[in-house]
Amino acid sequence: MEVKEEFECCGVNRQSEIDDFSLSVWNSTRGSQLIPGYCCKGADYISGILLAGKECTTNPTSLNSYFFEGCYTAIEEAIEEYSSIFVTGSIVVLAVEMTAVIASFCMCRQISADLEHSNNKRKNDNKRWIKHKDNA
């Protein structure tokens, strides 16, 4: 899916304010068209070629084209809309990761303490066994 279809926009800026297509190859063949055919609602790149000269290109309105919405603004609004969700999700992931790191350090420390206790017990058992053997 193209950006213009996803965000319902045409060009970088609002075409009603700035003509983004004046420096494009399309500009040399535009004639009376204000926007390319692929800026008409429901058009893709291929069908946009067939819409050349139709009403949506020569007399664009909010009903038949994306003439009044630039893609830069549309994308910027989408980022602003979802930024709080992204930040919240990032904080949750960070908290889970930090909890996992702390838990792994605690587990390593407990395993180390258990091994030390086990080694000390084995040494004491060996001393008792040697002492018992010597007494026998």
Automatic annotation (TrEMBL):
<keyword id="KW-0812">Transmembrane</keyword>
<dbReference type="Pfam" id="PF00335">
    <property type="entry name" value="Tetraspanin"/>
</dbReference>
<dbReference type="InterPro" id="IPR008952">
    <property type="entry name" value="Tetraspanin_EC2_sf"/>
</dbReference>
<protein>
    <recommendedName>
        <fullName>Tetraspanin</fullName>
    </recommendedName>
</protein>
<dbReference type="InterPro" id="IPR018499">
    <property type="entry name" value="Tetraspanin/Peripherin"/>
</dbReference>
<keyword id="KW-1133">Transmembrane helix</keyword>
<dbReference type="GO" id="GO:0016020">
    <property type="term" value="C:membrane"/>
</dbReference>
<keyword id="KW-0472">Membrane</keyword>
